[in-house]
Amino acid sequence: MDLKQITIPTPLDVGPINVYLVRHDPLTLIDAGPKGRDSWQSLEGGLRQYAIRVRDIRRLVLTHSHEDHSGQAGAIQEASGCQIAIHGWELETLSRRGDYSLYKSLLRSCGVPQDVIERFQQGYLRFRQFYDPVKEATQLQEGALLDFEQGGLQVIHTPGHTPGSICLLEPATRTLIAGDTVLEKISPNPLLNPDPQSSEGDRSPLTGWQARITDYQLSTVKPDITDHGRVHDSTVRNPQSAFRGPTSIHRFRALSAYLESLKRLAELAPTLCWTGHGQPVYDLAWYRRGMEEFIAARQHKILSLLRQANWTPWLLSLRVFPNTEGVHKFLALSEITSHLDYAQTIGKAQLEVCDGVEYWRSVE
Ligand SMILES: [Zn+2]
Ligand SMILES: [Zn+2]
Known about the structure:
The chain contains ten helices and 16 strands. By secondary structure, it is an alpha/beta fold.
């Protein structure tokens, strides 16, 4: 498969982002870059090397909905009329009707003070400058196959960094396009998010926008692939089904999901992983071992603090990451909540909820 990497600058701390061009029919871009003049010009310049214009793009696949990956998706669609495809669990964020009240209730349960929640909300709103809304998108599911005149890319749902993160695998060469699930130099922070399977009852933000989500009726995606023996049909007949579930808002158990996703990817034994930021990773087994060691060391630190006292997630995040500012405080809290939830899953920590706030302690 003829795959080209185009690197696009971002004004964000994460640095430049890699997007990928698949030079086969239908001409496909994987990830878009953030909204911004430099970003647009870099994309145009990158495409120009291959005598391609933005308006030639027929399909845009997004590995997840973060602004650095999806911010100029709306503008690309506007210029080209291309189809945009993303996992169903990312649709709400992509629609940009994400309701911050969901995050507020998650933050309150972590013991975050009200003034800090308001600062987080302002930061969240500031990110609006990095994206244009997307008018129409198509939902991808685990196992969908993106067909090209030559070869295909298989959608691997890899929840963790976000609930609906996907990787794309070219089975013939075992080449993986990994988005932010595999990053060469930074750990892909499993972010604090509502669980997409357990929060429908408390929100209805998708009405109207979802009505414009198209059915995947094109030949580019086939019903296909078995997952534990079950046949999945990737055609979307009821887009809202992605958000069906029990009524209360739960946190997405990001770290458990991430470790499971890494295990699954390692089992696919890719020979090359193209990353969302930085250089490619060639040895995923080695990468996975490194990540697991890093995660185990942090678990160890958190569990030793839990043995000394009871902590709210917020106070624990300040203790473990004392020198963070701004959005990094949110990232630090995300890291802590994902570790606490994981520690609970493996039976090492438990929580008590008092007045709606979580207090965590060690089981040992
Ligand atoms: Zn990301
Ligand atoms: Zn990213």
